[in-house]
Amino acid sequence: IDAALSVGDFAKAGELINSFEIHNDVDVHYKQYYNLILSVAHDGLNAEQIDAANLLSLDCPITGGMVVYSARDLYNSAIEDNLAFENVCPLTVAGRHSKPTIMPKAKPTITNHYVASTKLYPNPSHGFVTIELPKNMNGSWKVIVTDLLGKTIQERKVFSGESIISLNIEGSTGMYFVKIMNTVTGYQEVKKVVKE
After folding, report:
1. Which of 38, 69, 142, 175 has its CA 20 to 30 A from that of 12?
2. What angle do CA 152, 43, 1 make, to 5 degrees?
3. CA separation for the pair 196, 175 (Å, rounded)
C-alpha cells in the first residue's frame, strides 16, 4: 500500500486496502488511516472523516499502533491547526500497558496561542514554492517536507531574519505536507502542497 501511495497509484492502493486482512485492532487502524489518506488524495476529508481521524489520533500508540502518530499528523493538517495529543495509555496492575476500556480518551489541547499565518504559494506547484513566515515572531525556523505517509523528504533550517524562503520540493508528483516550526516559540503550522 505504501509503495502504491508513494508513486501516486491510488487505484492500486485502493485495491490493496480493500483486500487488506484484519487480524487485530492495529490492522483496523491501519485500514482506517489508509482510507483517509486516499480521501485526502482525491477530494480532501469531509467532516465525518475528520472526526474519524480525530478518534484515531486520540488512541494509545502502544495498543493502537504507530499509525496513531500518522493519524495525528493527518488530523492536524486537515484542520490546519497544531494540536498536541496526550498519550493516554493506562497501566494494568502488573505494570503492563493495556487498551483503555473505561477511561475517557484525552481531548487534544492547543500547544500555542500565537496569532500568525504562514503563506505558501504557488499551490499546486511544479516543485518550487515560496514560504512567507509570520513577521510577528523572532527566532529560527525549521521546515520539514513529508509525503502522504509521513516520511521526511527534506528538512531545512531557516535562520532569524529570513521571512521569505524559496523551497524546491524534492520527489515525484503528488501531495506533500510542509511543516513550519519556530524553534524559539514552539509555533507550528502544517500546509498541504500538491506537486504537479
Report:
1. 69
2. 50
3. 9
Q: Which residue has the cell 499502533?
A: 65
**What are 31's three cell numbers?**
485500514
- pLDDT tens for 124-152 read 899 899 988 877 666 778 888 888 777 88
**Three cell numbers, residue 162:** 529570513
> Side chain identity at 22, as an amino acid letter?
I
Q: Establish whether the linkage from the previous residue to 124 is cis, with ω within 30° of 0.
A: yes
Chain segment 98-113, per-residue pLDDT in tens: 443 333 334 443 344 3
Residue whose C-alpha cell reads 520527489 in the numeric block: 171
Strands 174-182 and 109-110: unpaired
Please say whether the beta carbons of 101 and 172 come within 8 A. Answer: no
User: CA angle at residue 78 from 73 to 80, to 5 degrees?
Assistant: 90
